[in-house]
Amino acid sequence: QTLYWCVSLLGLMISGLSKAGQALGKSMFVDQAVKTASFLETHMYDKASSTLYRTSYVERDAITTGQVYKD
Hints:
This protein is of the alpha+beta class. The chain has two helices and three strands; from the N terminus they run H-H-E-E-E. It has a three-stranded antiparallel β-sheet with strand order 1-2-3. The longest helix is centred in the N-terminal third of the chain and has 23 residues, at 2-24.
């Protein structure tokens, strides 16, 4: 339960930033949403297994096996 909640918060944050940028006409919010989504895809998502991890770094930049979501 808690793990899915974390994924939901990440999505909510990205959505909120992009909507705030659109509503306020501030590209810095949209840029941050894009940067955050890119970070998630690069460091927290394993395309081969369709797995989203809850943390991006453990020791020596290894991705943890703390699986959050898998298709």
